[in-house]
Structure prediction request, 852 residues.
Amino acid sequence: MADEIKKDTAAKVKVTIDGITTEVAPGTSIIEAARQIGGAVAPPAMCYYKSLEGSGGRCRTCLVEVTQGSAANPRPIPKLVASCRTSVEEGMVVKNITSERVLDARDGVVEFLLINHPLDCPICDQAGECDLQDLSYSHGNEGTRYKFVRRTFILEDIGPYIKLHMTRCILCYRCIHVADQITEKRIHGVMDRGDRAFISTYISRAIDNDFSGNMIDVCPVGALTDRTFRFKNRVWFTKPVYVHRDCENPKCCGKATAWMRGDEIFRVTTRDNEWGEVQIIDGEPAWICNTCRFEKKQVSDWVIEGPATVRKISVVNVNKYRNTIKPKETLMDVMGGLKPNLLMNIRSVSEVNDPDIKLSELNRPAIARDFDIANDIDNKIPENPGNAEKYNSELLKSSTKEN
Amino acid sequence: MSVKLLLEKAHVEGIKSYEVYRREGGYRAAEKAFKLTPAEITEEVKKSGLRGRGGAGFPTGLKWSFLAKPEGVPRYLVCNADESEPGTFKDRYLMEFIPHILIEGMIISSFALGSNRSYIYIRGEYAWVADILETAIGEARANGWLGKNIQNSGFDCEMYVHRGAGAYICGEETALLESLEGKRGNPRIKPPFPAVKGLYGCPTVVNNVETLAAVVPIINITGEEYAKIGVGRSTGTKLISACGNIKKPGIYEIDMTISVEEFIYSDEYCGGIANGKRLKACIPGGSSVPILPANLLLKTAKGETRYMNYESLSDGGFATGSMMGSGGFIVLDEDQCVVKHTYTLSRFYWHESCGQCSPCREGTGWLEKIMRNMENGKGTMSDIDLLWDVQRRIEGNTICPLGDAAAWPVAAAIRHFRDEFEWHVLNPEKCLTENYGLAHYADPIQVTT
Prediction:
């Protein structure tokens, strides 16, 4: 609230991101300015979380190129800057997706994040709402160049509700900021350093603070998962609905998202905004307490408000064509009344696709040898092989004879 | 004969003690400084053209003038004695043999910056040096150079020695401040810079040991005189810690006008390559600066003589030049394997990465693993390109310069010694027992033994 009033009264600064100019309050970070524009202009972020003070700057996925520092000092910043920790200046010109350098650096960061990340998405509870999944889908490569053993850790229960799967962690430090800022006392932290660094609790101490569950929500990957939800369901099978209840905890806002399947509530999370961060309700981040999150799993515990808004890129959104408009022009109209058959004649593309034999005349699936024009064996293909074994054995015979 | 400012009295018997140091003319600069105003001292340092001796070479006077001076907020001076760069040991020598020059320099600097509490953050491995410093601080306090109302100037200053736990990353100034505050030594994300928000959120100046010690001769001989020593923007004297395959490894104070060739081969300095071998390569400024092959070390790409100063060493950029860095001069002779050497450095940076930002955390580990394969004859040709690609994507994309420091040695090794990497790939068994030798870089100096 206070922020909004400030925005209205204070002078605004103009910033151009990817050729789109917007006006924001002074002191806004580049990423927030880009999010105002929205869409692909907003850099991805793995460690930055608006509601957590001091977060960001670590994952380096939000790097952008500043081609003009400000109107007063138009020199470019030589290095790429972390957009989440750099404030906008009047007349700043930023390049995000229009900069080759940025895309290349981001490609590198995604590769770095994935070299030690296990590819266990099929059994990971985060799959479907994982920031790293989205990021690697949009910016990653299809293969890996890393050919060494990946770093692994032993699974750990930190407290009665949270499972720590350190192998999946990308050390974004978000959960540490949650523990510092939302819970009473932080009793977990980062141990060791370099690529051996890991999150852990102090010896044999469990995290049981009232607000510790929010750590699960802020985790961008599946490193911190809800023990009450683990392996119960895939997120895309559950339906998110906004719910609320009168929570006894004065710090808890009582407004949450319940993920339901049928009449059953499978899990409760905070309400997320379009950037995958907690919503700001009445000027405060809408964190919820552990009682709401882990113990109220009956529909009767909650008042259902209605369906939750789902992020556009979320897998939960898939196959839900709400508000879609049927195109007026069908393909036939476009093609001038021709019935669409093949959009392109594949035979025109390469010679490989243009064998002498007519594929439609074969009464079996085509095999590599069918295309081998120079090979005489082609002529020996039996008309009706009947079964593959017979066919193969005949081929074998013919080739041994030749030898 | 070169000028000696810092090490002039280093060999006087008992210079470690206050009495001998004072008798030899110590604390005269401090006496002089207290008669000046803080602004005048800063001006002297600016005039001297002194550049940070920790590696980056940022002008010290400019750094001091950036210090924010809000009312009612304490300011701090922190001495960075976390000297952990492989190949650099000049600060240890200075602190071990003439600790009072550092303390005197810090008193003057504290007065100039208005810091009433100054800290020396020393690396944990220098345990005995920390004891020496503490003894020296005790002596200085007993003689009225520290504490309340120093020498009736009305200026109060306390000095503390803080021992680190031996992390290389704590030599990065913001990580050092975090560590000094008792936290995990993770570099902070800049801005804000320490000059605005440093130790305990107050304006702070972090300077290297040698930089602060150099303030003493600057005040003694005035900044203008100091600026006359050296050449161009490389003023004053610089301590070089020479090591590797040379006849006389050790600390040398140079006035930055001598050539690299003279430094390696003259008897006054390194005395030539040991055992009559030939020069292969050299890292002129501590492990993180690019390695240079012999031909590019002695002469620049343009064919000019290369001198031991900031500008000349970085002539040609990273393509054909290197950096002055912290002055850790590591010389490799023809029997050294550049691949093994690069692997050692990669292992070091992998071990010392703090793990905060992803390119450095994951990238240094990856570099180390590929380099290990390469060194053990398990590398492939594509690995060389992969190394290049990985280092390229680390460099410049990290929070602190450790990422760059990890990337540069690998980049330079591939840039200048690609044939040696390829030889390792093509001769997987031979490379375990033999050496590639001089490469195609012939030693430009004919050694007569």
